[in-house]
Amino acid sequence: MTLLDTHAPAVTLGSGAPTPAEVAAIARDDARIVLDPAALDAMAATRAVIESLAQDPQPHYGVSTGFGALATTFIDRERRAQLQLSLVRSHAAGSGPEVEREVIRALATLRLSTLLTGRTGARPLVAETYAAMLNAGITPVVHEYGSLGCSGDLAPLSHVALAVIGEGPVRDREGTLMDAAEALAAACIAPVALEEKEGLALINGTDGMLGQLVLALADLDRLVTTADVTAAMSVESLLGSDSPFAEDLQQLRPHPGLDASARNMRRVLAGSPIVASHRGPECTRVQDAYSLRCAPQVGGAVRDTMAHARLVASRELAAAVDNPVVTPDGRVESNGSFHGAPVAYVLDFLAIAVADLASMSERRIDRLLDPARNHGLPPFLAHEVGVDSGLMIAQYTAAGIVSELKRLAAPASADSIPSSAMQEDHVSMGWHAARKLRTAIDGLARVLGIELLAASRGQALRAPLEPSAATGAAAALIADAARPGADRFLAPEIDAAARAVRSGDVLRAVEDRIGPLDHA
């Protein structure tokens, strides 16, 4: 079997828990996977335990029995290969739109990582085939619906396992849809003939929801830091004060995230002629509105929520999630580690934080457009008031997104629908929590893009006063979109701003001018 090369740097799996960065590199950048030989040896040793149980006339769950509500049904030796094959085929029951390539690659990577712990009882050949498929850029088709987040992400993982045995639809590295057998043959990969316990080992994990948590944290690291930048730009454009962000004030409330967000805002606003222009005693404003003054409190709370989510993710990345598992002393034990509650809760928690961060950003957008509150800027930042509407409807777009994010903040993990004839009578809905978080993160990027657009236009309208070096660099990225003037087709300008946020271009522009900011 050949593990095909890619141009991305290699990631070694099996030598310990994969890092979030390694998972993201495989999922998003097609980093090549190398398997630790010691992990393959450990898999072989554990496999010997499963093979000895296969000879036992006493039933052992997952080895010589049916599954779920059929766990009491003993399966004769000659039927067990068919049992594993039937398990994968029947559980590949997803429906709905295709899931994104990066999510499928992440969940396949994490299932491979669990196989390499040597606790599942699968043969080394199975892990080698997963690695080969990932390295070849073969992506099984996985559907939106099918996981309840308990007994693992069953349907999503089953669609991946189906491809490993040479069945079902996949997409090749270029995205062409084809049959799995054809794709494997083109990559010189032999499909796996599953043996005892292996079908179960391939589908019984939290890998789908965990993979999406890892990717979400990578996205939020960029977006939350960008939110510090856009908040600072709004403070500047609204003639707000940087005094509430002073270091000694943050030390009175020692939340790490708060300190980091305030420090970012201080650095981004440092040397701003706009801020300096109204710092003297002639400024009669006592204090700014909450959406300006409390930006570090909200951004910081999001950061601290992310820190908790990272802790949960790190523990789950180090876990061997399967049922039953082969313990280090050779026992084969049923357990409940596949229940997705630990991951589901933090996915829902992050959706709440994302909704609130976007909500505060939208309030600043609205303030920038309102002549009663924007301290001398034209209504809606329009060129010719009355003839032009300026950014009026951009705020509508942001408000509509925020309303949707508030709906998505309702927890999926608070729900449970019994399944498998009441054997699986409580489930986590962690997959659904992950799916709605991905939608929420996209919405946050769009709202921050609209704030970037509005604040940049506000800066331009403060001329001849100049913004800080950092905020000016951010505004320069969308200078064409943000320039004042007669009304233009606005949707492309909003999209350009959202792309600058989502891609990390805003952060790079700022950090190129003032050095690295504190990331979440």
Can you summarize the main beta sheet?
Answer: 3 strands, antiparallel
The whole-number mean of residue pLDDT values reads: 93
Under the CATH scheme, the architecture of the largest domain is Up-down Bundle
Strand content: under 5%
Low-pLDDT windows of residues: 1-6
List the domain count as a whole number. Answer: 2
In CATH terms, what is the fold-level topology of the largest domain? Fumarase C, Chain A, domain 2
What keywords describe this structure?
Fumarase C, Chain B, domain 1; single chain; 5% strand; 3-stranded antiparallel sheet; mainly alpha; 9 strands; 520 residues; Fumarase C, Chain A, domain 2; 2 domains
Q: Any overview of this molecule?
A:
The protein is mainly alpha-helical and 520 residues long. It has 2 domains: 11-205, Fumarase C, Chain B, domain 1 (Orthogonal Bundle); 212-514, Fumarase C, Chain A, domain 2, CATH 1.20.200.10. It contains 21 helices and 9 strands. The strands form 4 sheets. A 3-stranded antiparallel sheet has the order 4-6-7. It has a two-stranded parallel sheet with strand order 1-2. Helix 1 links the parallel strand 1 (11-13) and strand 2 (33-35). Helix 4 (101-115) packs antiparallel against helix 5, helix 11 packs across helix 14 (295-317) and helix 18 (469-477) packs antiparallel against helix 21. This is Histidine ammonia-lyase. Its EC number is 4.3.1.3.
Summarize the structure.
It holds the Pfam family Lyase_aromatic. The chain has 520 residues and is mainly alpha-helical. It has 21 helices and nine strands.
